[in-house]
Each structure stands twice: as C-alpha cells, then as structure tokens.
UniProtKB/TrEMBL annotation:
Any one GO molecular function term: GDP-L-fucose synthase activity
Superkingdom of origin organism: Bacteria
Pathway where this protein functions: Nucleotide-sugar biosynthesis; GDP-L-fucose biosynthesis via de novo pathway; GDP-L-fucose from GDP-alpha-D-mannose: step 2/2
Function, in words: Catalyzes the two-step NADP-dependent conversion of GDP-4-dehydro-6-deoxy-D-mannose to GDP-fucose, involving an epimerase and a reductase reaction.
Name listed for the protein in its UniProt record: GDP-L-fucose synthase
Entries under CDD domains matching the protein: GDP_FS_SDR_e
Length: 326
C-alpha cells in the first residue's frame, strides 16, 4: 500500500460499537493515522441535517459505515420499528451525503440475515432476494438489504466505488451483554458467568439447541473489511458480478447452538447442567455463509472459535483491556 494511501482521512461511523472499534484497531495497525470519529451525542446519524453539515465540514476521503442498531431475537421482536427506521435513516443519510460531498470510496457493513430463511446452505451472494426472510428479524434484514441496494444504485448511476460486506454472526470485545437484547454469544457468556458466581445448578438456553450458526471473531471481520477496501476496484469487481455488489465474510464453518453453549460453558468454567427451553424461538434453522468469493480475493479467517471465546470472556471480565487481537 503506497504511503500516500495511508494519509487518507477516513471516517468510521459507529466507532464505539463492537465492529466499528475493531475497524479502528485494524486501521491503526495498518498505519492509517487520520481517522475521524463522532459519538452519537456529537452526531446523530439519523438526522439528515446533522449528517449533511458533518460531511460538508470534514474533508473525508473514505467511509466505513459500521453504525447500526443491532440486537438478538428478543430485541428484534420487541423493537421492529426502531430497527427498520434507525438503520434505514443511518444508511440513507451517510451514503447520500458521502456521494454529495465527492467521496468515491465507502464500505457498508450488513448482516447474514439478508438471505432468505430457507436459502440453500451455504448461502452464496446470489441468494439475495430469492425467498422470504426470517420473520423474527425481517425489519432489520430489509434495512440491510436497502443498504446494499443503495451502494449498488449509487455505483450504477454515479460511478462511485461503494462496497458492501455481509458478516456472519459476530462476537468479541465491545459486544453488548444486555440480559435480553444481546446476541447469542454475549448472552451465553453473561448467563454462564452469573450462574458460575451464584453456584447455580443449571443454565436455561433459549430454543432447542439444534439450529446451526456460524461465528466470526470481530477482529477478523475488521481485518477483512480493511482488506476488501484496499483491493483495487478491478479485483473487487471480479468477484462481484453485475448487480451484486456485496461479499460474504465468515469462517465457512458452523456449529449447533448446543455445541456453542457447551463451548461457552467450558470457557467460563461453569460446572452445572444445560437446559433447553423449546418453547422459545429458534430462529432460522441454519445460517452458513459461502465465503468462496472472499477466499478467491485472498482472505480467510484466522481466529478459532475457542480462541475467540477465550479472548472475549477475558474482555468481558476486564472491559478496559484493549489487547484483543493477540
């Protein structure tokens, strides 16, 4: 990477979130020094006027759009209007103002939930919009699909280089450990940790334990994001056929929720039993990404699940630690 490229002024939207903070770490490791960030209090990305003023006043060269409202099954079911509204507003404001102020390079981060509930496994990029979505997170998925199509549309009409990466289920330092609104790994870590310290005899897990999920350590996701952004446009376009501007990011391997619970139990050191509550929703039966396109670009995940869980639990116990990528 030429030195002048390292001098680019890069805006990371959502830098306090799990993904955004990992992207900042990845950029710092690669020698990018001029990184622009704003907290929600400083810049409300759902506010069109604030976003317009921000882009007009800053000399941004590239954007990583990692800001989003995210949550697990319970949060998606409880706050569907917030999930679709806030994510749509963030995407439309940032992508439009980036174009309006002459920013040619942007990376949009989506989610594997964009694919149909019963998509052929593993899910390839061309499965998008080929069937009904998973009902439990449909509003969020529709917002993320809109983000992909925004990038595609601006590229088609204005010749911009707006790229999209679709990560599988992410976990790692900076995750949300809320007892009801978190994703499965942070929820399990908290539950097992509290049960361990309370000397509980069992931990109850939502669902049957049979659905299969793929999990990617967040620093691997950040590494892939910067890798994709640094690719020459010809190399990126080679793997994103016409009308398909997004790339899957994952490990290409999945495990059952039961196996995941056992792994988290071992990581935390909980000695009690696992009980599965089959009355609670399972979500989609399987969500495995086809990551052959990204592998063809030269990138594969590096962090094993057990290693990632160990680092994540260490960070959960010591949130001030930033040593998350060793």
């Amino acid at each position: 990477m030429p030195m002048e490229e390292k001098k680019k002024r890069i805006y990371v939207a959502g830098h306090r979130g799990m993904v955004g903070s990992a992207i900042v770490r990845a950029l710092n490791v690669r020698g990018y020094a001029d990184i622009v960030t704003r907290t929600h209090a400083e810049l409300d990305l759902t506010n069109q006027a604030q976003v317009a003023d921000f882009f007009a006043s800053e000399r941004i060269d590239e954007v990583y759009l990692a800001a989003a409202k995210v949550g697990g099954i319970h949060a998606n079911a409880t706050y569907p209007a917030e999930f679709i509204y806030q994510n749509l507003m963030i995407e439309t404001n940032v992508i439009h103002q980036a174009w309006k102020t002459g920013i040619n390079k942007l990376l949009f981060l989506g989610s594997s939930c964009i694919y149909p509930r019963l998509a052929t496994q593993p899910m390839a990029e061309n499965a998008l919009l080929t069937g009904p979505l998973e009902p439990t997170n449909e509003p969020y998925a529709i917002a993320k699909i809109a983000g992909i199509k925004l990038c595609e549309s601006y590229n088609r009409q204005y010749g911009t280089d707006y790229r999209s990466v679709m990560p599988t289920n992410l976990y790692g330092p900076g995750d949300n450990y809320h007892p009801e609104n978190s994703h499965v790994i942070p929820a399990l870590i908290r539950r097992f940790h509290e049960a361990k310290h309370a000397s509980s005899k069992e931990v109850v897990i939502w669902g049957t334990g049979t659905p299969k999920r793929e999990f990617l350590y967040v620093d691997d996701m950040a590494d892939a994001s910067v890798y994709v952004m640094e690719l020459e446009r010809e190399a990126y376009d080679l793997h994103t056929r016409p009308m398909q501007s997004h790339i899957n990011v994952g490990t290409g391997e999945d495990i059952t929720i039961r196996e995941l619970a056992e792994a988290v139990k071992e990581t935390v050191g909980f000695m009690g039993a696992l009980v599965f509550d089959a009355d609670k929703p399972d979500g989609a039966p399987r969500k495995l990404m086809d990551v052959s396109n990204l592998a063809g670009m030269g990138w594969t995940a590096k962090t094993s699940l057990m290693s990632g869980l160990k680092r994540t639990y260490e960070h959960f116990q010591n949130p001030d630690s930033t040593n998350s990528s060793e």
